[in-house]
Amino acid sequence: MQRLVPDPGATSVADQLESYRPWHDPPAGRPRVALNFASTLDGRAAIEGRSGKIGSDTDTAMLVGLRQRFDAVMIGAGTMRVEKYGRMIGDPARRERREELGLPGDPLVVIVGSLDLPWDAPLFTDGGGQVLLISAEPEDEPPATATPVEVVREPDGRVDVTVALRRLREEHGVRALLCEGGPHLHSQLQAEGVADELFLTIAPKLVGAGSTILEGALPEVAELELGWLLREDSELFARYLRR
Ligand SMILES: NC(=O)c1ccc[n+]([C@@H]2O[C@H](COP(=O)([O-])OP(=O)(O)OC[C@H]3O[C@@H](n4cnc5c(N)ncnc54)[C@H](OP(=O)(O)O)[C@@H]3O)[C@@H](O)[C@H]2O)c1
């Protein structure tokens, strides 16, 4: 892998993330928030309805490497329904490494949305880690799961992501949050001005249809600046920071 910006030269995913400490100096009253997406050249966020075919193995390495450096990982219910996540950090050695860094072995998994979820997904049946479901549905109860699931209910029919972030910081001690999408949840974080960073893999593929990485109009244009740009073969890995 080559680093194109800044300081061009040879690098690797591990080297790039080695000194990355997003849990240091979070903003007041909320976690630092980073988004991670993979996109095709025509800006699509899914191939045949899922994200897995967009990026290469190096994209997966970046995803796993990023997960290793956050207190919590957030996804929307739509993404959970399609992607049927397993345990976020499956490798025990990686959980140990997190603990050495002063992070919980498993990141807290935060799901935003209804209880219409694939309860047979390994995330729920594995038993490792902890899930926090932030739901706007007042009554439903989740089924019994091997992995502990705490449900937080928002009374107004919709989760206010700014309020949710404040609670994650105050009540769950989350200093750094990685949001892996999807596009509707992403648009809310951008609209609220709380998306501090965007890790974007740009895959050399064209699809021609499907949702983009951000679905939902923003009240104003979000201005970002390039933090780094990496290249492996024809795939680009960008890190953008909100100005
Ligand atoms: N390329 C990538 O990097 C990437 C990453 C992630 C996802 N994806 C793709 O994106 C697609 C899924 O898109 P999506 O837009 O459905 O995903 P999403 O943003 O993860 O999920 C949307 C759902 O999340 C819940 N939700 C979001 N904000 C909410 C709020 N403020 N209050 C209450 N509920 C809220 C709602 O769930 P309920 O419907 O349960 O109420 C809503 O329908 C899939 O094809 C997936 O593969 C791609």
Structural notes for this entry:
The protein contains seven helices and eleven strands. The longest helix has 12 residues, at 161-172. The protein is an alpha/beta fold. Helix content is 24%, strand content 26%. A hairpin with a 3-residue loop joins strand 1 and strand 2. It has helices at residues 13-18, 57-67, 77-83, 92-100, 122-125, 161-172, 183-191; strands at residues 2-5, 9-10, 32-40, 72-76, 108-112, 131-135, 149-153, 176-179, 197-203, 224-232, 235-242. Strands 2-1-10-11-9-3-8-4-5-6-7 form an eleven-stranded mixed sheet.
- Indicate the overall shape: globular
Percent range of helical residues: 10-25%
- CATH architecture label: 3-Layer(aba) Sandwich
- List low-confidence stretches: none
User: How widely separated are the two ends?
Assistant: 27 Å
Strand count: 11
Largest sheet: 11 strands, mixed
CATH fold label: Dihydrofolate Reductase, subunit A
* Associated small molecules: NADP nicotinamide-adenine-dinucleotide phosphate
How much strand? 25-35%
Can you say what the CATH homologous superfamily is? Dihydrofolate Reductase, subunit A
Task: Describe the structure using short key phrases.
single chain, 243 residues, alpha/beta, Dihydrofolate Reductase, subunit A, 11-stranded mixed beta sheet, 7 helices, 11 strands, 24% helix, 26% strand, binds NADP nicotinamide-adenine-dinucleotide phosphate
Give the SSE map.
Blueprint: E1 2-5, E2 9-10, H1 13-18, E3 32-40, H2 57-67, E4 72-76, H3 77-83, H4 92-100, E5 108-112, H5 122-125, E6 131-135, E7 149-153, H6 161-172, E8 176-179, H7 183-191, E9 197-203, E10 224-232, E11 235-242
The structure holds NADP nicotinamide-adenine-dinucleotide phosphate.
